[in-house]
Write a structure and sequence with these properties.
The complex is a heterodimer of chains A (about 350) and B (about 290). Chain A has about 350 residues and is an all-alpha fold. Chain A has 16 helices and four strands. In chain A, the strands form two sheets. Chain A has a two-stranded antiparallel sheet with strand order 1-4. Chain A has a two-stranded antiparallel sheet with strand order 2-3.
Chain lengths: ~350, ~290
C-alpha cells in the first residue's frame, strides 16, 4: 500500500502523482511507440482508429464529462473537420495548416452551437445539438461543389512539406504524436483554473455562478475546445478513411461517440481511451464470437445494435462510472485489502430532481 | 388548392409527430425523465398490430386493441425493470439508458428473420380509400389519423382533469417528494405513466403504418417528434400536439414549395429558432427555482 504525504501545494496538481504513474505511463508510451514493429498491419490500423476516436472522445469528455453539457450532435464537428481537411488537402495545402484551419472552423461552429447552450440546458441542449447535427449532415449532402454531395469525396494522404504520410506506420506515428500532445493539453487544462471552472459548472451552475464564474464564457469555451478536438479527430478520420460521405457523420455516429464516453467512464480522462478501445474492439469481438453462435443469432443483421444496447443498459444500471470506474473499484479492492466494503462506491438513492426549475 | 392539400397532409403527418411527442411529454412531465426510446416503442406497437393481424389472424379492431394493451404492459414492465433502479440519477444516465433501450429493441426486431428484415404493409380496412371535395383529395388514412388524435387528446384531457389517477399523476409531476408525502404511490404512478406513454406510442405506430410501412427503422421518426415537443413546450400536453402540427405543416409546405433537402431539415431549423427565441416553447410554463 502506498501513502502519499503531501508537503507542498504543487504536489496536488502534479500530473504524475507518484513514481508508479511515471513508470506505467512511460511503459505505455514506449509500447505505443514500438507498436509498428510489434503488431501486425491490421491491428495497427485498428490502433490508429482507437487513437482517432480517443481524440474525439477527449473533446466530448471535456464537454459532457467535465462541463456537464451533453451534445448529441458531435458527429457534425467530426464531419466539419473531415470535410475542411479533405477540401484543403486536395487543394494542396500542407497538413499542419489544413489541420489548424479544420480545428479552428470546427471551433467556430462549436461556438455557434454553444450559443443556444447559454439559454437552454439539459435535454433542450441535447435536442438543439441533434437538430444542429441533422442540419450540418444535410449541408454536407447539399453543398456538392465543395463536399461532393452524397457521392462522397476522396481525400489524399497528409502532406508534410513534401513528406507524405501514406503508409500505415507513418500515419499511426502522426496520430500517436497528436494524441499524446492533446492528452497532455487536456490534462493541463483540467488542472488550470479554466478546467476547475468547467468542473464547477458541471457540479452546480448556481454555485459556480455565485463563485464568480462567467457561465456564458466558460460554456462557450468548452464547446469551442470540444468542437476543435472533434475537428482534429475528423481531419485524421478523413485521412484514415481516404473517402468521406455525409452518412458517416449522422446521428448514429453522434450517439456512438456519446456511448463511447459513457461506457469508458464519464468524467475521467482515461474513460475516453477505454471507451474508444471498446468502440473499436466490440465489432471485432462480435465478429469473432459470431461463428460459435447458432446461425439464426450469429448471422442476424441486428446483432451488433442489440449487443451495443444491452452493454449500454448494463453499464448505466450496474456500473455508471464505466470501464474506468470498474478498474478504480478493482484497484481500491487490492490497495486496501482486506478492508474493502461493499458500499464504498454505492450511489445514493434520491427522488428525481426537476430539470424544469432553473 | 395545392396549398390546402399540402396543409391537410401536413396536419396528418403532424398528428403522428404530436402523438409521439405526447409520449415524451407524458414521461417527462410524469417522471422527470426523457425517453429517447419513444420512436422504438412506436415501432414495436406497429409490429404488434402487424403480428396480431397477419400471424394471429385477428380482425383489425382486436389487433389494434391487443397491440395497445400489450404495449401498455410492456411500458409498465420496462419502467419496473430498467428505469426504476436508476431513479434519482442524473438525467444524462437515463437518456443513455433509453438510447440503449432503443438500440436493443431495434436490434432485436432486426434479428427476427423475415419479420424484422423486410418491410410490411398493415392491411387496415380503410386503406386506399379517398374522399374528394371538389379538387381536394383526402385519403381516409389522413382523416383517421386526425380523428383518432382528437379523440385521444380529449380522452387524455378527461383523464388528467377528472380521474383520481390523472390528478395523482399531475401531483407527482409537480413535486415527487411532496406527492409521496401526500400518500401518492409515486413509483407505481411512474410505472403507469410509462404504460400510458407506450400505449400512445402504439396508437401512433398503428396510425402511421398504413402511410409508410412497418419496418425496423421506422422508430427514427421519433427524432422528429423531439422538435415537436420542444416547439410546444416540453412540459405541456396540448403543446406537444400543437408543436407536432406546426412541424408537420411546415415540413409539408417546405417539401412542396422549397428546394429539395429543405423538407428534411425544416423541423430542426424550427426547433433551433424556437430555442433561441423562446426556449420554453409556445405553451411552456416558466418556472424559477428560488434558492
Amino acid at each position: 500500500m502506498r501513502f502519499l504525504f503531501k508537503t507542498n501545494y504543487n504536489q496536488d496538481i502534479k500530473l504524475a502523482k507518484h513514481g508508479g504513474h511515471l513508470f506505467w505511463y512511460g511503459l505505455l508510451i514506449l509500447l505505443l511507440v514500438a507498436a509498428p514493429w510489434i503488431l501486425s498491419e491490421y491491428i495497427l490500423a485498428q490502433l490508429t482508429f482507437i487513437l482517432i476516436y480517443s481524440i474525439a472522445g477527449l473533446g466530448l469528455m471535456l464537454l459532457a464529462g467535465f462541463t456537464g453539457q451533453f451534445s448529441l450532435g458531435h458527429a457534425a464537428f467530426l464531419g466539419m473537420g473531415a470535410y475542411v481537411q479533405g477540401y484543403l488537402t486536395n487543394h494542396g495545402m500542407p497538413f499542419p495548416f489544413a489541420l489548424v484551419v479544420a480545428a479552428i472552423l470546427s471551433a467556430v461552429t462549436g461556438v455557434i452551437v454553444g450559443l443556444p447552450a447559454l439559454r437552454v440546458k439539459g435535454i433542450y441542449l441535447g435536442i438543439a445539438t441533434i437538430a444542429f447535427g441533422y442540419i450540418v449532415e444535410e449541408g454536407f449532402a447539399r453543398f456538392e461543389g465543395i463536399t461532393g454531395g452524397n457521392a462522397g469525396m476522396h481525400v489524399k494522404s497528409p502532406d508534410f512539406f513534401g513528406f507524405k504520410f501514406d503508409t500505415g506506420e507513418s500515419f499511426y506515428a502522426l496520430c500517436l504524436v497528436l494524441t499524446v500532445l492533446i492528452t497532455f493539453g487536456i490534462l493541463n487544462l483540467l488542472r488550470s483554473s479554466t478546467g476547475r471552472a468547467f468542473v464547477a459548472i458541471r457540479d452546480s451552475e448556481i454555485s459556480a455562478q455565485s463563485m464568480g464564474i462567467h457561465l456564458a464564457y466558460y460554456k462557450t469555451l468548452s464547446f469551442a475546445i470540444s468542437a476543435a478536438l472533434a475537428g482534429v479527430a475528423g481531419a485524421l478520420y478523413a485521412h484514415n478513411m481516404k473517402f468521406i460521405s455525409p452518412d458517416q457523420f449522422n446521428i448514429i455516429q453522434s450517439i456512438d461517440l456519446v456511448l463511447m464516453i459513457v461506457i469508458g467512464g464519464l468524467g475521467f480522462v482515461h474513460g475516453a481511451f477505454l471507451g474508444a478501445i471498446f468502440l473499436i474492439a466490440m465489432p471485432q469481438l462480435i465478429n469473432a464470437v459470431k461463428d460459435f453462435l447458432p446461425a439464426a443469432i450469429g448471422q442476424a443483421p441486428g446483432l451488433q445494435a442489440f449487443v451495443y444496447g444491452v452493454v449500454l443498459i448494463a453499464f448505466v444500471l450496474f456500473e455508471p462510472m464505466g470501464l474506468y470506474g470498474r478498474w478504480l473499484k478493482m484497484r481500491t479492492y487490492f490497495q486496501i485489502f482486506p478492508f474493502y466494503r461493499k458500499g464504498m462506491f454505492k450511489r445514493q438513492k434520491s427522488f428525481q430532481k426537476s430539470d424544469r426549475l432553473k | 388548392m395545392d396549398f390546402l392539400q399540402q396543409v391537410i397532409s401536413g396536419l396528418a403527418q403532424g398528428c403522428i409527430y404530436g402523438l409521439i411527442a405526447l409520449g415524451f411529454v407524458l414521461i417527462y412531465k410524469g417522471t422527470e425523465t426523457v425517453s429517447f426510446a419513444q420512436g422504438e416503442l412506436m415501432m414495436l406497437g406497429a409490429f404488434g398490430g402487424y403480428i396480431a393481424m397477419n400471424t394471429l389472424g385477428f380482425p383489425f379492431w382486436l389487433s389494434t386493441l391487443s397491440s395497445i394493451m400489450a404495449m401498455a404492459v410492456f411500458g409498465i414492465l420496462l419502467e419496473r425493470v430498467v428505469i426504476r433502479p436508476i431513479l434519482g440519477q442524473p438525467a444524462f444516465s437515463i437518456v443513455m439508458l433509453t438510447i440503449g433501450i432503443g438500440y436493443t429493441t431495434r436490434g432485436l426486431v432486426t434479428m427476427i428473420p423475415v419479420l424484422g428484415t423486410e418491410t410490411h404493409t398493415l392491411q387496415v380496412p380503410y386503406k386506399d380509400e379517398i374522399f374528394q371535395f371538389g379538387t381536394l383529395v383526402i385519403g381516409a388514412e389522413q382523416i383517421v389519423i386526425i380523428g383518432v388524435t382528437i379523440v385521444l387528446c380529449l380522452a387524455l384531457y378527461a383523464l388528467f382533469k377528472y380521474s383520481k389517477i390523472g390528478i395523482a399523476m399531475q401531483a407527482s409531476s409537480q413535486n415527487q417528494l411532496a406527492a409521496y408525502y401526500m400518500g401518492i404511490p409515486v413509483k407505481n404512478i411512474n410505472g403507469l405513466v410509462w404504460g400510458l406513454a407506450a400505449a400512445v406510442a402504439a396508437v401512433a405506430g398503428i396510425l402511421l403504418a398504413p402511410i409508410t410501412f412497418v419496418y425496423a427503422n421506422m422508430g427514427f421518426i421519433g427524432l422528429k417528434a423531439f422538435p415537436a415537443a420542444v416547439v410546444g413546450g416540453f412540459g405541456s400536453l396540448p403543446g406537444a400536439i400543437v408543436g407536432g402540427l406546426i412541424i408537420g405543416v411546415v415540413e409539408s409546405l417546405a417539401g412542396f414549395y422549397a428546394p429539395e433537402g429543405v423538407k428534411d431539415i425544416a423541423a430542426y431549423v424550427i426547433v433551433l429558432i424556437m430555442l433561441l427565441i423562446k426556449p420554453n416553447g409556445l405553451f411552456g410554463e416558466k418556472l424559477r427555482k428560488k434558492v
